[in-house]
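Class prep. Protein, please:
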Amino acid sequence: MSRVQLALNVSNIDEAVAFYSDLFKTEPNKVKPGYANFAVADPPLKLVLIENAADAGSLNHLGIEVESVDDVPQGGERTTCCYAVQDKVWVEGPDNRPWEIYAVVEDAEVMTDCSCC
């Protein structure tokens, strides 16, 4: 199953996790310092929260999470980002809006600096 990803900058990760847990009636899939994500079943959504007080309330980036690395378009590369090892490719939409198309390979213990965050 593929799902759209929405990554938001938030000022307080704990408050944001509490709000979105209630809104989507689901607990986060992953919580790390300054980071959380939700695998929402209905509607199918990967919601990513990135603590970034300077840009709080703004969109960080968009993406499409695909089921396997075979579904990542050619040219994808392996990277560690957002506490996960991923195969991904970035494309630029209208108005310079970054989109990632990715598959998670495994969890990682570090956030690492990546172009999405």
User: Anything to note?
Assistant: The helical segments are 13-24. The first helix runs from residue 13 to 24. Strands lie at 3-10, 30-32, 35-40, 45-51, 59-65, 77-81, 84-93, 97-107. The two ends are 25 Å apart (CA to CA).
